Structures are given as C-alpha cells and as structure tokens.
C-alpha cells in the first residue's frame, strides 16, 4: 500500500449503470446488491446508481446496499442484459482488482471481472 494509502482513508466511488434503453426488464423486478470487500475490510466504498435513485451510499467494510471524490474512482456496469439475463437478484462484491458476481447455485462459481 502506498504512503497515501496508509495515511488517508480512501473513498472508492463505484458507479453502477443498471439499466440501458434496450433492457426489457421492469425496474421493480430487479434487485442489485453490492457488498464492500475492499482491502480485507479497511477501506470505505461509496456506491451510486444514477438510473434508479441517483443517490450515493457510503458502505463501511462488510457493509452492503441493495437497490429495489477523493481517492480512486472505478466504474463497472453491474447489469448488462446479454451477460446477466439469468439474474433476478444480482449479488456483487467490490474488490480492488474488480467486482465479483456471486451465483447462489452450486454449478455456477463466483465470477470476477476487471474495472472498466
């Protein structure tokens, strides 16, 4: 970790772009959840979903938020219809290396991606 990282609590901003114009899902039928798993529980995470409520939420280590800048800024589209069409409840963990989608099925492992 850098000197800045030791002296300053990083605020990570994750912007979730949930729905696109060509998405056929109805907003009320989609649940997006993100859990802060950054740096083994020592960094805060700020999340926002401009397409649902436009508000920002601060997640302390282990905290989560569900939707029915200082420091680094990363972005990842956590709902892409062609990738996530099997998802009615999408569960994600945000890590330094990128977000990981958790499948609650034995035949589907956790899949991690890189930040956009």
TrEMBL record:
Residues 1-28 form the signal peptide. It comes from the Eukaryota. Keywords: Signal. This is S-protein homolog. It comes from Phaseolus vulgaris (Kidney bean).
């Amino acid at each position: 970790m850098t000197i800045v990282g030791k002296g300053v609590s990083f605020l990570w901003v994750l912007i979730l772009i949930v729905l696109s114009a060509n998405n056929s899902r109805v907003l009320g039928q989609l649940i997006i959840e993100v859990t802060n798993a950054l740096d083994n529980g020592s960094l805060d995470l700020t999340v926002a979903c401009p397409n649902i409520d436009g508000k920002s939420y601060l997640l302390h280590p282990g905290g989560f938020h569900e939707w029915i800048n200082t420091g680094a800024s990363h972005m990842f589209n956590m709902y892409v219809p062609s990738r996530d069409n099997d998802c009615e409840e999408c569960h994600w963990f945000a890590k330094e290396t990128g977000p990981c989608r958790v499948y609650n099925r034995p035949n589907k492992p956790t899949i991690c991606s890189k930040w956009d």
